[in-house]
Amino acid sequence: MDLHSTINQNCSEISNKKLSINTSQTEQTEISHINSEEKKLWRIEDSEKLYRILGWGSPYFSINSAGHITVSPKGDLGGSLDLYELVESIKQRNIGLPLIIRFSDIIEDRIERLNACFSKAIARYKYKNIYRGVFPVKCNQNSQLIKEIVKFGKPHKFGLEAGSKPELLIAIATLKTTDALIICNGYKDREYIETAMLAQRLGKTAIIAIEQIEEVQLVIEASQKLNIKPLVGVRIKLSTKGIGRWAGTTGDRAKFGLNIPEIIQVVNQLKIAGILDSLQLLHFHIGSQISSISVIKDAIREASQIYVELAQLGANMKYLDVGGGLAVDYDGSKTNFYASKNYDMQNYANDIVAEVKEACEEKNILPPILVSESGRSVVSHQSVLVFDVLGVSQVPKAEPPVISKDEHLILQNLYETYQSIKKNNFQEAYHDAIQFKEESISLFNFGYLSISDRAKVEQLYWGCFRKIQEILKDSEYVPDDLEELEKIMASIYYINLSVFQSAPDSWAINQLFPIMPIHRLDEQPTERAILADLTCDSDGKIDQFIDLRDVKSLLELHPLKVSNKSSEYSVSQTLENSHTEIPSVFEPYYLAMFLGGAYQEIMGNLHNLFGDVNVVHIKLTPSGYKIEHVVKGDTMTEVLNYVQYNSDALVESIRCQTEQALQEEKITIKESRMLLQNYERSLSSYTYLSN
Ligand SMILES: *Cc1c(COP(=O)(O)O)cnc(C)c1O
């Protein structure tokens, strides 16, 4: 909740700053002079390097000569558009930020790439079977997206994986591609299993992957009841250890899958029921975002042996399903760091094909149809989340006041510290400043220091830190005890977004996503900042960013520019104008979060009742692009509905209360009309702030 008060405080700060810039002409010219000099020195190549866009963005995202991000949705096949201009033109259509832009061409390109990598590997190793991938619906259940995946996947007979009953319902209704697979995972009851079996009657290849030993009996009973021969798979708990966040997905105590004795039991039960030939698939999943290729290889090797053994036990084995795990390089470092991966898609396909081939050839077993359930790798790139910055809170930059000899001793001490800061004593001065500040707060609390003295203390304290920061900028070595200084001095950029709604993994599991401005990339970003979202929750922030080495805690951003348009918009005017929009004092500054197309949309929650964001589907055309679909984000009425408020009842309650106040002459008729109008207008509008 502490962020809330800072935000309020910040709003007044913005207006003050605006006024002060307007009044002091000389200062303004000075600032623009520095900026133009820095601009010359900073090139877009510097931005490329700083934000690592060539690492994580290739081949879809890059920077153009205007300093804007360019999107090439067809990857290497050509055709591109300017993301900044696209956002501006979407805004012209009255679709506000925050906004998810979905590029269907990227979905197509990812599916093509995945299939091409397996085709190449199959040709290279002369593998005597095919690849037939499935998309795990849980990564992004959005209906437009699933339809596109099915459409683009059709030439490759690309299927779907369901991890729950509702996802199964999506899969059997949406997937109409002949011979494409529906892999049925997750916990299953009788209804789930029967539905999957009956789907065979519609011509679907729905394979029931047994994850819990109890499911075999259900499958056998359903098959007898329906007189349908089921297609069965088994999910194995491999002993190969996963890596990173989802390492627990494997090993003896994993949540899902069968151990070897249980698999033998499944074989026996199916044999007794006379349907051992139903067992056709072996499945494993060692977790998502497997950053190391050697872990993948180990898992394939173990699974291949089990596959071969099952075939030798008399099962009618046809498919080996290697699950998910194909990783995304979020930080572009090409390492086995958790936010990266030390292999590419082709290495992945090659290793799977080569390992399986070797194991099968050794035992003279027909090699299986290879199935992967790659979700993250297929849909992460297709969506870009664009949001704007509402304001910034900065450590005060003003020169600290001069302290005279007759002022309080603590002020004199702090002033002396400030004045004496040099290269050889800054470390000592840093600790002195902290100590004097702490002392002054106790003095204040006991009534020995006035509030105006305390203001001077804070100005001096920040003045000391700023001086020390300047010294540190030029020095190669930063003492350990001063590492916090950069964080203390960081700016806070307030973003028109809820982290809980739009980047839940950033909050829940510290996942890193590339975040950067989409314009002004030909200018040096001189600010160091963390991002604070709209929610009144101190966790509603982003303070971990991708870096070549490890993670950085501050993001380089551009100083906000005061907007010419609204600079005459005076504070008193905005108070009189009673509409809900906040005065846009700054020129729009757009940031984007990339690679968030998997998992984020569905796991987002309604913290503080910030709802789904607007989504726009873009497709390249020969002459540019077209907006294929617009899915408007939640209105306030909709989010209030989720928590069982009826908007009519809410309006009625306000109406009754204003009526009462009118009777008691506490409100004028004009005010009451305004209140009701605002209330009703808010209910039907977007939950985010509009600029
Ligand atoms: C989540 C999941 C996937 C998707 O994994 P990615 O790493 O996103 O490709 C695949 N299979 C199963 C069983 C899963 O639970």
Write a concise synopsis of the structure shown.
The chain is an alpha/beta fold and 691 residues long.
What would the keywords be for this entry?
Methane Monooxygenase Hydroxylase, Chain G, domain 1, binds pyridoxal-5'-phosphate, disordered N terminus, TIM Barrel, alpha/beta, ten-stranded mixed sheet, 691 residues
Structure commentary:
This protein has 691 residues and is α/β, with parallel strands linked by helices. Among the domains are: 129-379, Alanine racemase (TIM Barrel, Alpha-Beta Barrel); 396-488, Methane Monooxygenase Hydroxylase, Chain G, domain 1 (Up-down Bundle), CATH 1.20.58.930; 638-683. Helix content is 44%, strand content 14%. The strands form 4 sheets. Strands 4, 13, 14, 15, 16, 17, 20, 21, 22 and 23 form a 10-stranded mixed beta sheet that branches. The chain binds pyridoxal-5'-phosphate. Pyridoxal-5'-phosphate (PLP) binds next to α14. Pyridoxal-5'-phosphate binds next to α14.
